[in-house]
Write a structure and sequence with these properties.
The chain contains 10 helices and 9 strands. By secondary structure, it is of the alpha/beta class. It has 2 domains: 151 residues, Rossmann fold, CATH 3.40.50; 85 residues, 2-Layer Sandwich (SIR2/SIRT2 'Small Domain'), CATH 3.30.1600. A 6-stranded parallel beta sheet has the order 3-2-1-7-8-9, with helices on both faces. A 3-stranded antiparallel beta sheet has the order 5-4-6. Helix 1 packs across helix 10 and helix 5 runs parallel beside helix 10. It is elongated and about 55 Å long. The structure holds adenosine-5-diphosphoribose (APR). The site of adenosine-5-diphosphoribose (APR) has 23 residues, from loops.
Length: 246
Amino acid sequence: MSAAALAELIRERQPCVVLTGAGVSTESGIPDFRSDTGIWAEVDPFEVASIHAFRRDPDRVWSFYRERIHLLLEAQPNAAHEAIATLERSGLVQAVVTQNIDLLHSRAGSRDVVEVHGSIRSAQCLGCLWSEPADAVLAQLEAAATPSCPQCGEVLKPGVVLFGELLPAAAMERATHLARSARLVLVVGSSLEVWPVAGLPLEARGFAIVNRGPTALDEQALLKVDAGAGETLRAVLDCLEEGLVS
Ligand code: APR
C-alpha cells in the first residue's frame, strides 16, 4: 500500500521538506494550471500572468488577478494542507516550500512556509517598492480597473511572480538550502514543469511524489503515488499514528 511505503520513507529519511504545487489546493476548489481542467486550458498565461502583459496592459492582468484574489481568499484549507501542518507539528516535516500564492498552508497551521512564487498577501509598486495589503488592493479594485500606489501613484503589480520575472531571491535561496539539506523532498500536487522550482527535488538526497498524473521527474523519484493529495496524506498520517511504520 503506497501510503504505508510513503510513511516509511518520511519516518526513515529525515529531515523531510515538502514541496507543493497547485494540485494541493484543488480540493479547496482552486483549479490547477496544467491538468485538463486547469486554468491555462482556458486562458493564455502570457496574456494575463507575464511581466510583459502587465507592462503592456495592466487592466487585463488585474482583471485576471481580481477574480483569483477573491477566489483564493474565500477558499479553505483542505485535508492535504492540514496533514502537512500536522506532520510539521509532529517534527516529521521541517518546512513547506510552496509554488502556491493562496496562503492556505499558513491558514492550515504550517509555520515554516517558503512562498517561492509570492502570494496574494499584497501588491507591489515597481516604482517605489511600496507593498499594499490585499484588502486595500481589493478596495481600490472596486472603484478602478487597476490599483495605484498610495506613495507614488504608479500602477501596483500583483504580489506574485509573473512569467518573465525573477523569483524572490531570499525565498529561493532558503528553498534551495532546505532541499540540499533534506534526505527527502516530498512533492505534492505539482507537474514539476516550471523551473527553477522544478529542479529543487534534484537538489535533495532523494524525493517522493504524490501527484495525480505524470510529472517531469517521476522516473527519478524514490516513490510515486498517483492519487489524490488529501486522501494520500491522510492515509500516511494514519500509518504513522498507528505505528504501522517500523
Ligand atoms: N491530488 C494530487 N494531484 C493533483 C490534485 C489532487 N487533488 N489535483 C491536481 N493534481 C495534479 C495535476 O494533475 C497536476 O499534475 O497537480 C498537478 C498540478 O500541476 P500544475 O497545474 O502544473 O501546477 P504547478 O505545478 O503548481 O505549476 C507551477 O506554474 O503557472 C505557473 O505560477 C504557476 O506556480 C505555478 C507554476
